[in-house]
Amino acid sequence: MFKFKSTLLLIIGLVVGAMSGYMLGANGFSASLKGVPAIMRVENQVSPQNIDFAQYWKVWDILRENHIFRDQVTASDMLAGSLKGLASSFNDPYTHYLDKVENQQLTETIEGKYSGIGAELGMKENNIMVVSPLDGFPAKEAGLKAGDYILNVDKTNVVGMNINEVVNLIRGEKGTQVVLNVIKEGDSASRDVKITRDEIRIDSVKWEDKGDGIAYIRVSRFGANTNSEWNTVIDKILVDIGADKLKGVVIDVRQDPGGVLNSAVHLASEFIDKDVPVIWEEKADGTQTPYKSTRKGKLKDLNLNIVVLSDGGSASASEILAGALRDEADAVIIGTKSFGKGTIQESIQLENNDALNVTIAKWLTPNKEWVHSVGLVPDIEVKIPDDFKVGDTDPQLAKAIELAGMSKGSFLENILKRVKVF
Questions:
Q1: Active-site hit among 316, 318, 347, 396
Q2: Sign of torsion, CA 76 5 268 342?
Q3: How does residue 420 score in pLDDT terms, banded at 50, 70 and 90?
Q4: Is 124 a catalytic residue?
Q5: Of 117, 119, 139, 130, which is closest to residue 185 (Cα–Cα)?
Q6: Using one digit for the tens of pLDDT, what is the confidence trace for 81-98?
Q7: N or C: which end of the chain has fewer CB within 10 A?
Q8: Mind listing the pLDDT tens digit for each residue in 50-79?
Q9: Which residue, 356, 413, 422, 381, is CA-closest to 92?
Q10: Radius of gyration of the chain measured on its C-alpha atoms
């Protein structure tokens, strides 16, 4: 049995295997897996679609009987690889078969809660660097510093690995320890930092009062708790700044890879009337169905200047929000062209806690623009300099705050400027 989970807009992030495949027990097959090599009993070698699977089983048997590492690979491993390959045969980077570990990691990412050390990692010159150990979490308390380069994780050399590989090594059960061997640029010797893992919970929505009636809202992902976090932030803004003094809102979705579709609809609904299309869903047969705003938001009638910050790391739900606010709320998009991820996935939960993420539709902006592989072009293009360093003035944010603080007439004039480079 299986059930449907949330509708997702997933950006590439899960690394999964790729082999041709087929699910045992489907389409009239019955098989028993015993021993090494496996003893197979196939009762039907032709599927209802008249596809002959005899060659599949021939390859299976050859591998089980002849591969020098056959004792290290179980029949279950082969089945899992087959299922991953079946999903990958569609040549769609967003359609995946996930084993229970990968499925759990995806769920944790969506929920913004996992066991780890609480540090933001980045890449610098192909090396893994600690961008920021987060306040109140184990990494900072253990002495990990911004600018530390990670050389080893529990004596595993991670030089040359990508961020996903290193993160998988660092994460682990709450209460367990991980030892990072790190070095600071300019130091002659590395040092060990022993960290006890804990539950990490990161808010997806944060805000700052930028003065002069400007509220800055940072949305880092669209997850399970984003809607409630957003509601709390909006209420806080209305109390701390006041509806009568609030002039403009800057929404920052830079480097936000997306997430849950309904969260994008909820956030967009803050600024537009109820029952207005936020996006259109287009199925394979061309049928188009609107996802409409779910409410009249608290900020809808405040006549605010709305600015969205976007860049090449803004994808899926981030692009939905930006496109909806541009088309339906007279928002200005500032930054650089977004990623361009215009498809919708359904996460189907299977037996044994595995899952299948399937691309089921395109999504279109309210004006029915498909941004897939193209991205949203900003109304005002502002680039980050190549030599930008932490602590420098952020030119994209500075321009956004400038626009958000303009008189309404001057602000609306900027909507007609396409594309101006600063």
A1: 316
A2: positive
A3: low
A4: no
A5: 130
A6: 999 999 999 998 889 898
A7: N
A8: 788 899 999 999 999 999 999 999 998 999
A9: 356
A10: 25
What count of Cα atoms within 13 Å lies in the side-chain half-sphere of residue 34?
A: 5
* Residues 354/81, Cβ–Cβ less than 8 Å: no
Cβ neighbours of residue 150 under 8 Å, at least 6 residues apart? 121, 127, 128, 129, 130, 158, 166, 180, 181, 182
Catalytic-residue membership of 316: yes
| Complete domains list, the chain, with CATH | 3-110 (no CATH), 113-201 (2.30.42.10), 205-421 (3.90.226.10)
10 φ/ψ angles, rounded to the nearest 5 degrees:
-95, 135
Q: What is the DSSP string of 243-255?
A: TTT--EEEEE-TT
Task: Give the active site residue among 345, 362, 396, 399.
Answer: 345
* Per-residue pLDDT at 276 exceeds 70: yes
How much is the pLDDT for 82? 95
Exposure string of 338-358, with b = 16+ CB inside 10 Å and e = fewer, is: bbbbbbbbbbebbeeebbbbb
Q: Comparing C-alpha atoms, which of 321, 322, 332, 327 is closest to residue 415?
A: 332
Angle ∠(116,122,128) on CA atoms, nearest 5 = 85
pTM for this prediction = 0.75
Predicted local distance difference test score (pLDDT) of residue 41: 44
For helices 75-88 and 54-66, the axis angle rounded to 10 degrees is: 140
Alpha helices in 67-180 (DSSP H): 75-88, 100-111, 138-142, 163-170
The catalytic residue among 84, 140, 247, 341 is 341
CA-based torsion, 36, 40, 45, 47: positive or negative: negative
Structure-model confidence comparison of residues 268 and 392, the more confident one: 268
Q: Which pair of structure tokens corresponds to residue 151?
A: 């050389």
